[in-house]
Design goal:
Elements (H helix, E strand, L loop, with lengths): L21 H10 L31 H9 L1
Protein name: Small basic protein
């Protein structure tokens, strides 16, 4: 029996997560110099998640393509 196309994973999680795992939060706190080695990993402070937004790149139009369009 095969899996329906709507249920297949196509590259894992595509959108950004808004909740970090404990080890990810600790690494963020270490980067921000807010983590001490004696500190308990339970009850961690909140860490802001920065989302990356990429803009679509516009294609540069070639003058050759314009000539081809005009001829049609």
């Amino acid at each position: 029996m095969s899996i329906d196309n709507s249920l297949k994973k196509k590259g894992g999680l595509v959108r950004a997560r808004n909740v970090l795992k404990r080890h990810e939060r600790i690494t963020k706190l270490i980067e921000q110099d807010r983590w001490e080695d004696e500190q308990s990993p339970l009850g961690l402070p909140k860490v802001r998640v920065m989302r990356m937004v990429t803009k679509k790149v516009k294609k540069k139009e070639d003058p050759k393509d314009d000539d081809k369009k005009k001829k049609k």
